[in-house]
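dumping the sequnces here before i forget
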Amino acid sequence: MTIERIPARLSGATSHGSLLDLIRGTGGMSRQQLLASTGMSRATLYERIETLLRRNLIYEAESMEATGGRRSRKIRFDDRGRVVLAFALGQTHATVAVSDTNGVLLRSRTVEHRINAPEGAVLQPLIRIGTELLNAGTAETLVGTGVSVPAPVEAGTGTVVHPTTIPDWRPEAVTSAMTAAWHVPVVVENDARAAALGECNDDHETTVYVKVATGIGCGIVVNGSILRGAHGAAGDIGHIHVASDGPVCRCGRRGCLATFSSGSSLLDQLRGDGLNSLDDIAVAASAGRTDVEALLLSGADVLGGALAATVTTINPDRLVIGGRIGTIPLFAGQVRERVLRDVVERISNGLTVTAGMPGDAAAVDGLTRLVIRKVYSAEAIDSLLTDYVQNTQPGGRGTAAS
Ligand SMILES: [Zn+2]
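..and the predicted 3d for all of it:
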């Protein structure tokens, strides 16, 4: 008989949620293996397995090798047909995507929109696309939705706070629209933070992600957790003051980083030359237009100088430059060169600086991970099943719906 290695931190697991964590993390175990690795009493373990089975959180899979004449069945996390719906909203584009619980992308569609339109005009068409994408699947169960927006988000409540990009939206616009459309848990996150998590190769990585598109956003993940700061503004680098005599910024101040390095500032300088979108800039750069290249190089250089301080403070494994402008090879390359030149060796040693995934792939991946954490974390399962157990006890408030 083969016994898989059990992570030490999970041995001694006792609650329903930590038991599910163990089953998910190992890819499935038999009852005997669970008894041995958790040290739980048989009665308690079997009761918890029963409850998880009744809630369709686990299932009994194929027989494992016979032990002592009995065949034991493997208990697995029930991810069959479970899907997450993600909405990655940018200022000019949005991607709607269906992924499985392992983050594998199943179906997606990207459309153009204007984020500064009224909330209903932005969200309702995307919800219709989400419905169509879900209807295109067979035997799928939606477990949660995730939405990223180019605005500050209060993560605990999913409300959008102090947004300059969508000033007319109600703070709860996104959560209430999603909850009205689907009665499943909702995660709302800032776009750069979602993408930062999506760019991480594993749950323990430390990554600084900078999105350079219309504006500049930054998401920081430390050991797998999104860094928010005391007041939720960690990584808000777009309006760092970089030059006292710089141009006036949209925020009203002079010389912000965004006035040198954001897509909108580059467009402002290139519009007279027939370039009207970030895509136009990317195409002109790849065609080798020297005036565009020069602007990109100087914008990237200023950004790299500003990021040297962030990278030195966080000491990440990876610095990822994403977004329509950030992923232009010339731009990402110049940011890399400037950062590596400006930081000390202890920081640059082992630091990888790369361009991000194309399009909204990173934000979609990060949102999917956040939804899975929200729905299946040990704490979420324990609180779900506490209600469930209370309601199904004799004298309880009746049987909970499954
Ligand atoms: Zn500013």
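The longest strand covers residues 141-149.
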